[in-house]
Amino acid sequence: MAVLASGRGSNLQAILDAIAGGRLAAEVAGVFSDRASAQALERAQAAGVPAHALSPRGFASRAAFDDALFAAVDALGPDLVVCAGYMRLIDPGVITPRAGRVINIHPSLLPAFKGLHTHRQALQAGVAEHGASVHFVSADLDGGPVVAQARVPVQPGDEEHALAARVLAREHPLLVETLRLFAAGRIALREDRVHFDGRPLTAPLQL
Ligand code: GAR
């Protein structure tokens, strides 16, 4: 796989640790970031994984940047591109031909709370349950078919940082387990629907 990450890279670290620990039969062929200062790049280097920074500055358009980024990604020949804390929208012209080969982890129970500040959104909405989702990336922001989710109860008096930390702790095993299923050939996107063990999923896997 190739991993795209903009910041801290704890989800990337969970992937690298699972591979190093023999819990995920996969390889991270490269890590790419739109921010040269991303901690994710240091984590990649520490694991001996090629790390690449590409700044959107200097590109005339989103499409031009994404074309350049995905040309570099494609050069590695990944079966899957994993957006793990990648905070940029990807141009539909780049995503559409790669449908089923790009996944994203998002910190909410999609379709609830798309976009940014999802924990704040959840607290403001007063929901009893929050969580994280792994979905195939489509041209719609945070709108592609959901593969798997982890549910986290909201506690009385919860505040944003505490809730975010509890969700993050569930994101790591959620992402690793979803990648395990993908690597085992058990998950695929066909005709815009997630298939699990060859059958269309009627609801996201609960992991
Ligand atoms: C994670 O919570 C991830 O779900 C979220 O950013 C964080 C990155 O943490 N992604 C998004 O909000 C994407 N829209 P990490 O850099 O430590 O993996």
TrEMBL record:
A GO molecular function held by the record: phosphoribosylglycinamide formyltransferase activity
UniProt keyword Transferase present: yes
InterPro entries named in the record: Formyl_transf_N, Formyl_transf_N_sf, GART, GART_AS
Site feature: Raises pKa of active site His: 142
Name of one Pfam family that matches: Formyl_trans_N
Gene Ontology BP terms: 'de novo' IMP biosynthetic process
Protein name according to UniProt: Phosphoribosylglycinamide formyltransferase
Gene giving rise to this polypeptide: purN
